[in-house]
Amino acid sequence: MMKNVFLLAALSLCLFQSCDNDDNEPVPGYVSAETKAAFDEKYPSAKDVEWETRNDYLIVDFKQDKVEKEAWFDNSGVWYMTETDIPFAQLPDAVKTAFRQSDYSTWKVDDVDMIERRGVETVYVIEVEQGNSEVDLYYSPDGILVRTVLDADGNDGYEDFIPSQPSSSVEAYIKEDYPSARILDIDREKGMTEVEILDGTVCRELLFNDGGAWMQTKTELRISALPDAVMAAIKASQYATYKIDDADFIETPDGEWYLVELESGDREVNLRIDALGNIL
C-alpha cells in the first residue's frame, strides 16, 4: 500500500512539472540569464518556446494566446523586434482599406505579418503573389504604404529591417526639423546613417554622415506634384517621349532639385532639374 502511495506521488510530481514547463524545450546554454529574464518579462504567457542563434541575435519562436511569434534579442537582454503572424481580418481597418484600393487588390494574399521594432514605428507587411511574381507591401498602422519590395522571395525573419541606433545629433535634427514625424527605419552602413521617416503622409529619407551631420533629404513625390517648370523642361528636352517612372525632391546643404527617373523601353535616364526648370 505504501509503495502505491509513493508511485502516485511521483506520478503527480511528473504531471505537475510537465504542466509547469508547458512543453517548452530547455533553455540552451548560449542564452544568457539577462536575455531569458527579458523574454519572460515581455512575454510571460509564452508557450512552445524554442531558441536559436542567427548572426549576432538570439531568436525565440513561441506562441502567445495561440498566435505564432518570433522575437529578436541580443545576449545582453535587449529586445529589437517581434514578428507576429496575423490573419488579414485582424489588420487595422486603415490598412485593409488601403490595400483594397491598391494596384495589388486582386492579387492573392499569401501571408500577413505585424512587425514591432524597438524605437520605431510598427508596420504591417502583406505578402501577395500573382503567377510567378511576389510583392511585399509595408503599411503604417494608418494605412500609408511606406515600402514596396518587388519580387520578394521570402525573408530571413526581417533581419534587415532591424533598426540601428542613431546618434544623439541625428535624433536632435529629426526632432527639430520634423517634430511630428514617425521613424520607419534606421540603417547604418559605411559610416553613413539613413533614416526613413513618415512626416504626416509623406515618406522622406534623411542621410547623415559619420559625424551625424545632415547631408540630404529625399522626398517621394507623385508625378502630378512636379512643378510646371519641371514638366516643361522635360517636354523641351531630348527625352520628351520618355515616360516618367519616378520623381523625388532632393534637398542638400548646397541646393535643391527634382530628381526625375525617365524610361523608354530598356533605356533609363535620371534628370536633375531645379525649381526654375533648369536641367542641371
UniProtKB/TrEMBL annotation:
Q: Name one Pfam family in it.
A: PepSY_like
Q: State the source organism's domain of life.
A: Bacteria
Q: Residue limits of the Putative beta-lactamase-inhibitor-like PepSY-like domain?
A: 60-146, 194-280
Gene3D superfamilies reported for this sequence:
3.10.450.360
Q: Which InterPro entries does the entry mention?
A: PepSY-like (IPR021533)
- The entry's protein name is PepSY-like domain-containing protein
